[in-house]
């Protein structure tokens, strides 16, 4: 009889512990306890000044922006460095809740993903050695051009040279594309303006020039990228707009770029 009583007590304690453990797990997984879950955010930490590694820590403009937006939206986040191409797979297959890394919103991507309202105005620019005869986008014809594969930089160059042209060299990250230029394997690099400007500023000994061409390259807008049908989009649309309007975005932008952002143009682009 005594053994039976002890057995009953053990079973009751086990059930209580199991219930407690189950409650904690469900709250983290789907937020049923009323607390919003911690979000996994995929990124590519080789894209300075937007996302990059500094002493092993992921940092950059996009990181500070993402943290501010997450606080405004009421979510905890974890940034995971997965690489450029895997970033898109992670979000599409819902292995990550969303992605951020200077991702341009365009018609092709919107067929597969949902995007937040825009948060950054960008354009492509050309990085060349000093003294280069390349002075505009049109001058890229007949030249070997290095790009980050799967980007609007690649699309822009393909619009000039032709799709899958032999003179377009595609790389897994911008640093490799720039190394190809420095080694003489390419005549130019086409990438986001902030990327080429940041590299040229931080490496004056490389003697590089930046070519701007507003007529040759269209304006682009970055957005947070979600799986199709994500319920998170609504929360983050509100948060992004709030950050743009309340001065937080301007402060972060000036810290990273030393200039004032064109907030009015970004807000005007929001649909």
Automatic annotation (TrEMBL):
Signal peptide coordinates: 1-19
A Pfam family matched in the record: SBP_bac_3
Domain Solute-binding protein family 3/N-terminal as annotated: residue spans: 38-260
Molecular function GO terms recorded: ligand-gated monoatomic ion channel activity
Keywords linked to the UniProt accession: Lipoprotein, Palmitate, Signal
Residues annotated as domain Ionotropic glutamate receptor C-terminal: 38-259
Keyword GTP-binding: no
Compartment(s): Cell envelope
Principal location: other
SUPFAM superfamilies: Periplasmic binding protein-like II
Alphabetical list of PROSITE patterns matching this protein: PROKAR_LIPOPROTEIN (PS51257), SBP_BACTERIAL_3 (PS01039)
GO cellular component, one term: membrane
Protein family: Belongs to the bacterial solute-binding protein 3 family.
Protein name: Basic amino acid ABC transporter substrate-binding protein
Taxonomy of the source species: Bacteria, Bacillati, Bacillota, Bacilli, Bacillales
